[in-house]
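PROTOCOL LOG
Step 1. Enter all chains and additional molecules of the complex.
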Amino acid sequence: MIQAVAPKIEKNYLNEKVGLLSWLLTTDHKRIAILYTFSITVFFFIGGFFALMMRLELLSPRNWLVSAETYNKLFTMHGIIMVWFFLIPSIPGTLGNFLIPMMVGAKDVAFPKLNLLSWYIFMLGGGVTVYALFRGGVDTGWTFYTPFSTTYSTTYVVAAAVGIFIAGFSTILTALNFIATIHSMRAPGLTWFKLPIFVWSMYANSVVLILNTPVLAITLVMLAVERIFTVGIFDPALGGDPVLFQHMFWFYSHPAVYTMVLPAMAVISEIVPAFSRKPLFGYKAVAFSSIAIAVVGFLVWGHHMFVAGESVYSALAFSFLSYCVAVPSAIKVFNWTATIHGGSVSWDTPMLYAIGFIGLFTIGGMTGLFLAALGLDVHVHDTYFVIAHFHYIMVGGSVMAFLGGVHYWWPKISGKMYPEGLARLSALIVFIGFNLTFFPQFVLGYLGMPRRYAAYPEEFQMLHVLSTAGATILGVGYVLPLCYLIWAWHYGRDATPNPWRATGLEWKSSSPPPTHNFEVTPIVTAKLPYDYEAMKEELELV
Amino acid sequence: MSDPLVLELREQFATPEQQRHTSSIGIWLFLMTEVMMFGGLFVAYTVYRFNHPQAFAQGSAEMDIVLGSINSAILLTSSLTMGLAEFSAKFGRVRLSGILLFTTILIGLAFLGIKFTEYYEHYQQHEAPGVWFNHVGPHAPEVQMFFVFYFLMTGLHAVHMSIGILLLLGLIARNMVGSFSAAYHTPITVVGLYWHFVDIVWIFLYVIFYLPGLHK
Amino acid sequence: MITNFRLWPESASSVAGGVDLLFLILLVVCTAVSVGIAAFLIYSAIRYHRKSPNELGTQTRYNIPAEVTWTVVPFIFFMAVFVWGAKLYFEIQRPPDNAMSIYVVGKQWMWKVQHLEGQREINEIHIPVGRPVKLIMTSEDVIHDFFVPAFRTKQDVLPDRYTTTWFEATTPGKYHLFCSQYCGTKHSGMIGWIYALTPVDYQRWLTQGAPEGSLASTGEKYFHQFGCANCHHFNNQGRCPDLRNLYMRPVLLTTGKTIIADDSYIREKLHDPDAQVPWGFSANVMPNFTGVVTEEQILALISYIKALGPQPGTQEPSSSGAAPAEYGTQKGIGGPGATSNAGSQVEKR
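Step 2. Run joint prediction.
Step 3. Record the structure below.
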């Protein structure tokens, strides 16, 4: 039971101060979350535009829309923008920033000024990267493989690397802030095993980011130094080892993949109990599976290099560990499903996204088993099979979860309700469009269509056309929420403090919350998390 | 006189104890990040030293072991004064603490001075990587690689030193307006941890760059 | 016009069947499990659809036996797939002893191929069916990747080192060759064809368009052209080792270690002659050939040294650096006192 129930008050974090400066100089985690939402939305649509251009180009086996040179820049910029300026900061920067302090019953994050600084650093990094794009772009692929990136590419590699380097600091500072907040800002009585799973997952996610981002930073520094001073670090002509770059890059980037999906799992782990009116099944297993993913996720990077000439024995070890890291993900899927079973299941928009997420994440995860199988990976490595696999995790997983989370907490964030019918429709459009876009790519991959091809043999065309058709539907599915959410921000009907009758601390505050989140610091007396039984009266669930 | 504890308590915290605890978590997390950042360079250095043992030994033989050793001693001394500054603040001797912080800055500057002297010598002997590099003898690209790592790693270390000196200046300024007391001196502790970390990194740099050449 | 639409790739190598079988079995199991989860999910969502606005779900929190089951069962399944996949990988990675060698050099944006018989091809490789073919590959610039979907083989091609892949075509035909590692502007143009020919057709192809001579004879030409022959006499007299009977034999180094004189070792000698110097010889004698010889010329030189012995079939090259089985028994050859490793081989003979 939470004792302090905030009454609906007139002053909230949105209207207490007005004017552009009050936003740009705010240290309120909720306003910073809004700033992030704005920025990543812009980046998402920039990255999405590049994706659409690529899909259009691939309608024909020959270059008909853009040249090979431009196509290479398109997929590189799509990757860079989506990975570093959308996927990694998306859920932590927006929902994480908004919710972690509220879920732990704090007034703000541990270091509010640092939090604002993170956003500025993020924007600076984004700015430098966008500058690189507008000056002519980068054509190395988001993976920056050497020696192509250090010696052979003639594009703006250093500028892009600097942009990502800068953005990395923003990631690190946000993660640091979250860990400190979760450790020391919890409300009285809120012990670790009473925390919402959202907080657990974000904690695991932040630990990964703290430990892997600096490795990327220093790898990019080496790359830039090599390129600027034309010295040998990774270039084999000067005694370097290009495979070392791959090791260092994937030591960062494989855990980075988990930092894109752990926050998504965090969101789903909140939506599923809330819309089933049931505690999350196997709470401790789900909590520890996040930690397990974070830890084992650091030990599997070599599975990106099975055909890169690594020894068969290290390939064996990495394959084994990759199968180990699949177990905690499987546990989560089973636990979410078991939570829905026997619940009081509503079909509101966030739940539709959550169910869609579980389905798509399952497919994404299962195809990961194909890729981790050494003998199979040899064939499907660097083909569209890989593309389809990680888009099922990152688009079918992370983006679906992000949209689900935005809808779930929209009443809390904006104080308004969104149009439910339209929202359900667009969830359906996203689901259909997504599958039509990416399922054919599994077939393409097994057929042998390599990645990053601007032109391709004719026999692949039919599947590419299907994929492009799906992408246009998916595009509609993404533009719709943008429109109706902006509409709802102004014209939606007012939301009650707890429209879904969920249990989290964030719902104890008014919608939208006051600047300091809670009128009185909440004291948690509930014995368990998601305690519907104990909160039955309070939530009017009889 | 107003209580500095209450003055310095930020609004998001409930108690000074909580604030201190949070700052401590924050700096340790930051140092974890730093360890991983330098760790990446150490790994790359190790791989290449294993691949090119002769070239790295040749490169290391060009190091000025005397200056390097002096610098190590200097930096360890600065850690001592830093530690004493924190210690005296803990006992309320804030004036003494300020003097010790200032001493730390001076020692830090001496370190950087010697470091840049070394850089200049390497530059003059055409050992700075890039267009300035000119090595006669076998393994020239690999010897250059040794110097790439030398300049990159000690350079990154020097950047950290410079940031540390700026932070120390900030501490002195705050000390002068009376922000610190026996009850509240968390910033000195935090910067102290950072400073000690930077020192420890140097010990490792000293070992990997200066000592391999001694075997010759 | 859309042509050749298909949903399943051609299978034309000895390992393709094994790969397809694992893929199909995984596909069946994973589809079954996915459909099962999805069906259960949809069933639950419908069966337990909220009936009244104030309804509460059953407040179950955990079920240890169920949770242990769905942790352990997937793990066992994963391990089974791991073992199967690993077994297949060893098969794909390890060329059989009787494989014929073809040298491949990747460069932006073409595949240059040299046959031991002297034929040269660009973006095309003619191979016989029913015979294992081992490719020894390197790159002149960036990383490429040699990918033949119909053979289910793929291997990155790296600059400054050799990687290998092998296959045995089972069906005559024309198969795609792709570069599968992004390598720059015309990456998607770095494609070619593998022509798998019947042994008869292959023999006919070999005799067509008579090349100047075998790759080894081209190598011999370079051996004189670059001045190698001036020092590497065939009589143990010079300051340099006799290269006869060197290929794939253990070499004792000045450091006391032993190394197999494989393709990579010979290549390294041209680029970094003072590293890993054989016992009895000194550094700073051999000039550095970096930038003087091309990758293709090096391959010809290796082919020549290979032809200097031992006789084909006695020992197979392995560019991965892995020691062949005979490694242990030959240890000690060329030890202290011997004028050179190759020399002791001669004495032994």
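Step 4. Note key features.
Residues 429 and 476 of chain A are 8 Å apart (CA to CA).
Chain A touches chain B at residues 106-112, 172, 176, 179-180, 183-185, 210-215, 217-219, 221-222, 225-226, 229-233, 237-241, 244, 248, 516, 521 (CB under 8 Å).
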